[in-house]
Input
Amino acid sequence: MTTAHDYSEGIDPEYALKYAIQHWSGDRSEIVEGILTHVTPSWDHENAAEEIRDQIKPRARELGCVTGSGNLDLPGSSNWYVPDLAVAPKDLAKGGGALLPDQTLLVVEITSESNAETDRVVKRKRYAEYGAPLYLLVDRMDRTVTLFAEPGRLGYAKVDGPHPFGTPVRLPEPFALDLDTSAL
Output
């Protein structure tokens, strides 16, 4: 005879939710404010990410970093993000698990019609709260690019933009490069 096990005690809901997302449906699933979402970017969305990656990658290599869209954990919250692009130190990226936003040098989110407000408001707030030093928002609906810097618990203290597509956007140190936004 088998009996049902009472799991009401000893289960950490945050751990259970994040375990589920990692084993649910592949590497492009995330949790935003407790909602599980499968991310399916369109080709124009992927093109924008590649345009940025191609420009950042040489400098990222010089810095000993990797560019990609690996998992970002936001401990103590029901959030597990898969950014469109992030830059992180290679030694941290080799661990096989998720990184924390403050372990990145840059996080990039590119809006789609289905997630524009999430990227503009929720993720911007959370990335700042969790210390992502630079957050680049590529807003394809508004056709603008905005760089957020100097994170804190209440948000980013410094905002550069929004700049219309086609305007160069300066990525500060450690990148020290002008991002060409004309092809986004």
Q: What stands out?
A: The first helix runs from residue 13 to 24. Confidence is low (pLDDT under 50) at residues 1-7. The chain is about 25% helix and 30% strand.
